[in-house]
Amino acid sequence: MQPTSPEPSNSLRLSPFARFLSGLRASLRANEFALVAVAALVGCLAALCVAAMTQTATFFHEKIYDLPFDVRLSAASRIEPLAAFSALIVAGLILGAMETWRLSRKIRSAVDPVEANALRGGRMSLRDSLFVALQTLVSNSAGASVGLEAGYAQVGAVLGSTLGQKLRLRRNDLRLLVAAGAAAAIAGAFNAPLTGAFYGFEVVLGSYSISGAAPIFAASISGTLITRLIASAPYEIETPPLEPLVWSSYVALIGLAALTSALGILVMRAAGSAEKALDATKVAPWFRPVIGAVIVACLASFTPQVLGAGHGALALDIATDYPIAVLVAFLGVKIVACLSSLASGFRGGLFFASLLMGALVGKAYALMLAQWAPSLAPDPSLCVLAGMATLGAVIVGGPLTLSFLVLEGVEDFSAASAILAATIAANLIARSTFGYSFSTWRLHLRGETIRSANDIGWIEELKVGKLMRPGPATAPDWIDLDAFCELFPVSGDQVALVEKGGRYVGLVNIAEAHALAQQQEGWARSLARHSDLWLTPEMNAKTAMAVFDKAEADLLVVINPATGAPVGSLTETYLARRYAEKADAAARNAIGIN
Questions:
Q1: 314: phi > 0 → left, psi -120 to 50 → alpha, else beta; which?
Q2: I want to staple 390 with a disulfide (CB 3.0 to 4.6 A). Which of 42, 260, 528, 594 is the partner?
């Protein structure tokens, strides 16, 4: 009998590409340089997508609205009302059809980068994200009052997430790649690597960490360089030089911060109210965007500044000496156009729109101070920059992100301290009085509880069903104390009583039952406790801790919510220990300690 040849090992059976991926995964887990290289690659791919989306939108703007060479849509002197109505209505019908198709296929709404990093450990769907990016591109190309930056960040983040999932990266590394992709997209869009990096830290990652610095900065710088090589940055900001800073400027800018904070909160609350108002009309999903299209087209007939993100309008408004009334009118119509677009179903972001609105507020504020309090009136350009940074910080949720954006745009750091002070003050006011940025506010309206991208997904993953001890001790609820004591010796702890149908009735302490049985006869049910307090397998650890606090119990039963039958038990001590372990691991990841 011939000896059989040994079975080939798993590593030998793998294809060369599979062995390469396996080695790459091991390298990424052990070598930070490898993760930085992957982040830089994600940054390059994100920048290419930013350039492609920008060129597509610009092409449609020029063809639909017959724009002169090198004139932005929102800076046009006038547009044909027929072009605006037809383009926006057709785009609205396209978006309505896309949304109807999504609902008919029961496809969930796409997860944005903030939600992905807060709740899902960085996991995003490539298909769903590309669907959102296409909707954003359709919206902006037709001239809806939304920016492409939300689509940029979505595509950049999903590139990082998809590549990270293919490489089976650890949770923290996957979250870093999501932040790196979004950072690269924003950096490329604004030609501002610091802005992109801090967008990744503040908005998408939710914290600053040493371990995240290298990959996020690498992605942001590579995204900026690629954009410079192939095209100009679509949202690059240019403003006049600043005058020297004086002490009264700080006072004036803090007042401006309070004003923009109030405006930002008003805009975000109005966005939620507008969506609820449209929901109340019971308009069919396929027709809903048409309502917003008609409103925006009507406003565009008054001024083209409401169309698109507003890059051209920003440059025009800064350079032109408009009176206060005109600036306030532009601000009002832009707010209405943005809210109408978003509430009706056009996809996009308020990132650049917040910059335009902030610039209008800042310029009007400077003119009012010059009239009513000349001694406090700062440089109007400084007020414009501070207005952009403060309102942007309130709506976007990143004070350093917006501070660096305006400072990188003018390449003048002489007023950095005043702008930083105003931006931090605005963010502080907004967080203490409202508590949300625009992205987290929209998630709140959908029922989520997150207020930043800090990783709390581990709480949802720490389910009672994974922590419980299955098969709790049970006894029928009609059993008497003597029979109960015969079945369960004093060495035990708690027993769950059940009805004839198997439904949970309550918990009986075995030691208490034995003590009572020695004194008198009775029924075990008379000792049942916590009949209305129990856990379910789908409860997360945080909810379970709250139930334990309410019950003031050391052990609770886990029941099947469909049948009411006990399926397990869980002690508070074990739950608290596992919760503390996970919380400690999350904190260590946040500060870069693996």
A1: alpha
A2: 260
Beta carbons of 582 and 458 less than 8 angstroms apart: yes
How long, in residues, is the chain?
Answer: 594
437: Cβ–Cβ under 8 A, 6 or more apart, which residues? 203, 394, 395, 396, 397, 398
Fold match, 16-230 / 247-451: yes
Rounded to whole angstroms, the Cα distance separating 591 from 180 reads 17
pLDDT digit string, tens, across residues 256-309: 999 999 999 999 999 989 989 988 888 888 899 999 999 999 999 999 999 999
Q: What are phi and psi for residue 435, nearest 5 degrees?
A: 90, 0
Half-sphere exposure of 361 (CA within 13 A, CB side): 28
Q: Say how many CA atoms lie within 13 Å of 252 toward its Cβ.
A: 29
> Does the pLDDT at position 27 exceed 70?
no
Cα gap 141→90, rounded to integer Å:
11
The reported pTM is: 0.81
CATH 3.10.580.10 fits 458-586, yes or no: yes
- Give the Cα separation of 193 and 196 in Å (integer): 5
Residue 480 phi, psi dihedral angles, 5° rounding = -85, 170
What pairs with residue 570 in β-bridges? 556
DSSP E strands, 413-545: 469-470, 474-476, 494-498, 504-509
Q: Is the dihedral of CA 160, 162, 167, 173 positive or negative?
A: positive
C-beta of residue 96 within 8 angstroms of C-beta of residue 286:
yes
Check whether domain 16-230 has CATH 1.10.3080.10, yes or no: yes
Q: Which residue type sits at 121?
A: G
> How far, in Å, are 80, 240, 355, 573 from residue 327 at the CA level?
23, 18, 14, 61
Q: Quick check: 28 pLDDT over 70?
A: no
d(CA 86, CA 53): 22
Could you state, in order of their start, the residue ranges of all structural domains in the chain? 16-230, 247-451, 458-586
pLDDT tens-place string over residues 133-165: 999 999 999 999 999 999 999 999 999 999 999
C-alpha to C-alpha distance for 360 and 353, rounded to whole angstroms? 11
Of residues 442 and 504, the one with the higher pLDDT is: 504
The better pLDDT of the pair 282, 591 is held by 282
- At 387-407, the pLDDT tens digits run 999 999 999 988 999 999 888
